[in-house]
Amino acid sequence: MATALSVNLNAVAMLRNRRDLPWPSVTGIGRIALAAGAHGLTVHPRPDQRHIRFSDLPAIRQLIDDEFPGAEFNIEGYPSGDFLDLVAAARPEQVTLVPDDPSQPTSDHGWDFVADAALLKPVVARLKAEGARVSLFADAEPGAMAAAADTGCDRVELYTGPYGGTFADPDAAAREVERLGAAADAAFAVGLGVNAGHDLTVANLPPLVRRIPGLAEVSIGHGLTADALEYGMAETVRRFRRACGQVV
Predict the structure, then answer these.
(1) In this structure, are residues 41 and 7 in contact, taking their beta carbons and an 8 Å threshold?
(2) How much is the pTM?
């Protein structure tokens, strides 16, 4: 099965928030992405609402329920009480937990699954009881996957930022793909599904998908939104779907 594509709408929301105006519409762009074949939509509502606003969540939920019932809503965030309340109201199909400080500009590291086990285990259990699939943000460390599985999560999302940073160095890119592949192999061995995300592009997705043929999903925002300025959102989604190995 080809890797699914979830379109992260944070960059669209950040552009909207530059003015006190309703465009670009987060739900409008989300509709275009889903109509072009994206598997789902991803958002990361941060406490300061600097891109996705809390009020966007019910609107995205309604868009999926009313127009694209086969699509998935993926909400990312640090498991604070406020975040968990937002998730309970929005009923996402998947929740991706990240160890971010609220001041971070973007996610840039995975969980320490041993040190953070006491935090993660009850949160994972709560989210699964609410009907969500739970994915945990993870560095490309094969030795950490058994501890990740011990939290009760369903998947890990491999942090691909270091891979994205090798765009001008093919040898370094090959090394990073192998690191990610080894971590995915270890995750599969303990029964976890594998997602991936951060700085993925049309150019660097195919080698990653070839190395991790069981890669379930990628969530992509910055690179996809940047390409949409050139190609339009619908065509950009199709280009990324092809890069994921999908027949478009």
Answers:
(1) yes
(2) 0.96
113 lies in which domain range? 4-243
Active site residue 44: yes
Q: Which of 39, 44, 72, 176 is catalytic?
A: 44
Residue 221 lies in a domain: yes
Reply yes or no on whether 198 is catalytic. Answer: yes
Domain count, the chain: 1
Out of 39, 51, 72, 76, which one is annotated catalytic?
76
Two tokens, residue 96: 């991706």
Specify if 248 maps to a domain: no
Taking the CB of residue 139, how many other CB atoms lie within 10 A of it?
18
Name which of 211, 207, 219 is nearest 243 in CA terms: 207
Has 76 been annotated as catalytic? yes
Kindly report, residue by residue over 5-46, the tens digit of the pLDDT: 999 999 999 999 999 999 999 999 999 999 999 999 999 999
Residue 49 has what DSSP assignment? -
Bridge partner list, 41: 7, 73
Kind plus residue range of the DSSP H or E element containing 137? strand 133-138
